[in-house]
Specification:
Non-ribosomal Peptide Synthetase Peptidyl Carrier Protein, Chain A, globular
Length: 78
């Protein structure tokens, strides 16, 4: 599985609690209410455990979490 698919499945199963939900890679996760501050912390922890990437606090910003595509683009630098 590629990273976008892994992130999408995690968000659908663990954050949305609905693995059958529709979620596109460009959907705004913050404005739509899918991600809140607690969900972002869960996602940062998941990224560290799954991909071995520790995100510095200064990188936990809207631009990096507004969509799965944006998050994947950010993670590509590691």
């Amino acid at each position: 599985m590629d990273r976008k698919t892994i992130l999408t499945e995690y968000i659908k199963e663990e954050i949305m609690r609905n693995n059958k939900a529709m979620l596109s890679e460009e959907q705004d996760l913050l404005s739509s209410g899918i991600l809140d501050s607690l969900a972002i912390l869960q996602l940062v922890s998941f990224i560290g455990e799954t991909f071995g990437i520790e995100m510095p606090d200064q990188d936990v910003v809207y631009e990096n979490f507004n969509s799965i595509k944006a998050l994947d683009s950010y993670l590509q630098q590691y």
